[in-house]
Amino acid sequence: MSGLYDRIQAAVKAVRAKTDFSAPTGIILGTGLGAIAKEIDIETSIPYEEIPGFAKPTIFAHEGNLLFGKLSGRPVIAMQGRFHLYEGFTPDQVAFPVRVIRALGADTLIVSNAAGGLRRFFQPAALMIIDDHINMMGINPLIGPNDERLGPRFPDMSEPYDRALVALAEKIALEEGIDAHKGVYVSVTGPNLETAAEYRMFINMGADAVGMSTVPEVIVAKHAGMRVFGVSVITDMCVPDCLKPADIKDIIKYANQAEPKLTRLISKLVASI
Ligand code: HPA
Question: What pTM does this model have?
Fold first, then answer.
């Protein structure tokens, strides 16, 4: 990780050559949050290729733009397209944009993802507000030399997801009639979906949903002193005793189905922060 601080500064310089837009909130538009981009009144959009240090999105990573604009009238910086470990990116590459968003002035990070539901009472297309996580990726983006200018060597993880934001999101969901659960997200590298035995293990560990993203970005955000809000869209049911083959078409279908309510939840949350 040597030179990380300088790489962040180089990225910030490239962004600042194009826009002086700053925002207190960064958003990672994961699967199911693509529609939020349409709700953002975009002032500037910078392709990842034009920001030094940003990895090149693979075909699978859909769009790759850093958006600067207003959501619900509030300034936000949004990642349209994120990087996953299963695409071959390193933990450093996956989390680097969070460092840049932080260095551009944001102190809050909102993340979304698609995830498998481990609880029988979940329904596909339901939302789960993340109130804690378990890192089962076998990696950590903070491994390596620590630069104290970026954060502490041993960052605290007693509250990875900001309790006040979780409570606020629950209140909004209730008011808006959005079916939002709350639970623990366990992260894996993928790209294969899990075996029934693995799902059983995750349930026994105390996890409520499983997915292939989010945790590296959240670890780095916490290291950098940000407060975090995360939400999963439940796209398939992972109940080990009646496991059916997962169909990626169904996963995308349910993610899209959840998009309007997720957009509503995030827009209202950003408006109330
Ligand atoms: N497992 C892991 N990641 C996922 C799943 C799943 O079942 N569904 C969507 N992302």
Answer: 0.95
31 lines ligand 1 (CB under 6 A): no
DSSP for residue 86: G
CB 42, CB 29: distance < 8 Å: no
Cis amide linkage into residue 47, ω under 30° from 0: no
DSSP 94: H
Which tokens is 211 given?
């997915």
Please tell me the class of the 2-272 domain: alpha beta
Query: CB–CB of 219/95 below 8 Å?
Result: yes
* Residue spans per domain, the chain: 2-272
Strands 108-117 and 209-211: antiparallel
Reported as type and span, the H/E element at residue 181 is strand 180-187
When the pLDDT of each residue in the chain is averaged and rounded to a whole number, the result is 94
Q: What angle do CA 261, 73, 33 make, to 5 degrees?
A: 30
d(CA 248, CA 114): 11
From 238, 247, 248, give the residue whose CB has the most ligand 1 atoms within 8 Å, as the site to mutate. Answer: 238
Supply the pLDDT for residue 100: 98
